[in-house]
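Exercise 7. Predict the structure of LLM class flavin-dependent oxidoreductase from Phytoactinopolyspora mesophila.
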Amino acid sequence: MFDAWVDRSSGRTENVDMPADGTASTPHIGITLSIIAEVGDDASTLDNVPAAAREVEQAGLDSVWVPDVITGDSRPALEPMTVLAAAAGATNRIELGTCILALPLRQLAWTATQVQTLQYISGNRLVLGTGIGGFTGEPFWRAVRAPTKRRGPWLDDALDTLPRLVAGEKVDPDGAGVPIALQPATPMPPLRIAGNADAVLARAVRHGGWFGGGAGSGGPETLRPGLDRLREIAAEVGMPMPRVTVAPEVTLGVAGAAGKARDERAAGLVAEGFITAEEAARIPIAQSVGQVVDALGAYLDVGVDELVTGPAGEGADWLRGLEMIAEGKRQLT
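Solution. The predicted structure, encoded as tokens:
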């Protein structure tokens, strides 16, 4: 009964504005929703997902993204695929991304049916950022008996099988002798493969998308070696350069909120060993539209196609920061 507003056509392409010469003309900027907190924090600090997703869409931005960090140590965290279902129901246009779904945590058939469901209810707006996962020592990882070794080869097999399951083919997903056919069949969402090792970059080339940046990654210039290597691998195998999505190492938002968020983030990165205190002090802050344009534009200049970021603060500060990012996008266009 809702077919009038949900487009389930199999021909959806990625949300990329292309002029006549074939080069991308409009920067694509997505917003990360806050669906995890620190141990001891109240769950009320997590985003109201439907409301936040609507604000992102109304601001003219391109996507919302959610992390996958369920640790099982009393840290408040929401399950990302369920969160994206809520965001899908509250929006009509924006893409819905994971940054980054740890596929080894999940039984592949369950993941396939979640992907199908999200594609079906959203009109094929899912973007599946994925990787091998990085929290193998956490209680949740052990509780679900996820693999801790040879996760790269496991992921390669999973990424070969997942599109067939999503497309409705009859497949034995784990070699147990139980072939299944899942319906309704949907298009496989675009992939973004996270990581920096050569094997990861080769995987990103094969699947057409790379997710870079993130915690402790440094500024845009630090991406150049990875981007150059992506181009080399793509040329070696005769494939196009994959689409590049990056979480920039910069804190955006209104004065006060941005500084506080940067300091808290920097302290956490130092405590977890991602960066040194000296490196933490160099994490930039963008507290005006002009600074947002400069900070994000520097990433676009080195060859990034899409940026995934978010405004600092809560409530009114978050909304003002969101509009700052949206205005920055308009000026970058």
